[in-house]
Amino acid sequence: MHSNIKIVFLFSGQGSQYRGMGRKLFEQNAVFRNALEQTDSIVQKHLSRSLINELYNINQPIFDDLLITHPAIVAVEIAMYKVMQSMSVKPDYVVGNSLGEFAAAVVSGIWSAETAIETAIEQAKAIVHNNITGGMLAVIHQKTKDVEDIYLKHNLFLAADNFDGHFTVSGTVQDLDAFQAELNKLNIQFLRLPVAVPFHSPLMEGGRNGFIYYMNTVSFLSETKSGFISGIKYEALNELPEDYFWNVVSKYTNFSKLVNYIEIKGPCLYIDLGPSGTSATFVKYNLTTTSSSQTFQIMTPFKREEQQLELLKKLMPTTKTFS
Description:
By secondary structure, the chain is of the alpha/beta class. Helix content is 44%, strand content 14%.
């Protein structure tokens, strides 16, 4: 790969998590393990629960307890960033999608890893304490406008346009169930996401004030480093407003606009540091046929992270070598 290729770190949000994410790295990579152990102490301090136990020792398939999944996603992504640091892989640009912006902010020097985890916990508390419940559903192989009348009929909200023929809606469980039943009748493919909160919809507003109050009690937001690209503004930002980290999980997002903005900067290697490669997939399907950019994911449910890290070394631009 040529040296003019830009490195882009991608971080994903709610819906990308699963119990056991990063297990092989936790067992085999000291940097990853140490990062999670540091996070575990923070979670135990604030919640009296072990993040590591919840991730790797509990034998239950469902993983949608927001108080744990919120900090868990951020923790795993920060741990992956620490692994990249240990390999001297440095990004030219950093991009978060939804909750993924918490980890992106760590990479960009906006706040510390500890602050990111504590803020994720406080955001989860604000959502849980205000009894904000619901869910999300991704519609596959359908253009947004072709199904708009149906999801609006069921009182659902367009949460995200991911790529052409793939979008996400949010709403109450009852409304999502009715919408899902109609999709089944129409033979339209969909995926119910493993979340119990209607992220990226007006239904989130009940938790805003509590979270913003928390954000106002501490002063820790620094100016962003060069290369921080907002997942909700679709451009580079130098300063973030006080409600930014609420908006990233409550407002509509358009991944296509985000990719279009980055692609103007030239060919990129998009490295997905999220749990399941969701962001890499979204980027892949937003790239034009003439683009020479590439996508790469490290973590997957198939536990091949160590092999993927070895492959990544071979993909790195020749001037961005490992120490």
